[in-house]
Amino acid sequence: MVETNAGYRRSTGTPRGEARRRELLERVTDDLAVNGLVDFSLRRAARAAGTTHKVLLYHFDGAEDLLRQAVFKLRERRIENAMAAVAEGAPKSSLADRVRLVWPMLVGEEAGLARVLDQAMGLAMYDPERHRDLGRHASEQYLPILVGLCPPEWSERRKRGVAEMVLATLRGFLLERLISGDEEGVAAGFEALLRALEREEAAGTAA
């Protein structure tokens, strides 16, 4: 599905070159959000960016590198939306309240964005040797945000453990919602997660 075509790239080494690279990446990312990962290629990306595949190879290390960076940008958009909801909703609220604010952003986000990120995780599971970075980088992006939602007085180990639990659970809920369509069951499970977080936070306060 994804072409590998390294060899053309040269470092631009200038602010202008970096600005051009960011511009191209934004255009390719917009195309990915609309059209998904299926049949992604350098030539398709070049059409979306209004350039040639050789120009893309000047700025990126092939199609897989471009795909990784575009998926990264899409996750950044998801994270920005979620954190904006937390900031506007209740910045000094409990951990459970913050997670509650994030959830509607995940289930109600643009269909294209959710579809592409689901496809990226599926690709990482289907061909981990080639695409493991699509999954590994997801955790690297999400976990610091979830750690930041935890009470500041918690130890780093405890924050990390709770963040890992929240990330894995939300991923499971999103997958279950996609596969089964059981929104009622997922909603019940999400409320159970919030109660678990409330107990975790209460235990920390008591300690």
From TrEMBL:
Gene3D superfamilies: Tetracycline Repressor, domain 2. SUPFAM superfamilies: Homeodomain-like. Residues 1-20 are annotated as: Disordered. It comes from the Bacteria. Residues 18-78 form the HTH tetR-type domain. Residues 41-60 bind DNA. One of its GO terms (molecular function) is DNA binding. Keywords: DNA-binding. This is TetR/AcrR family transcriptional regulator.
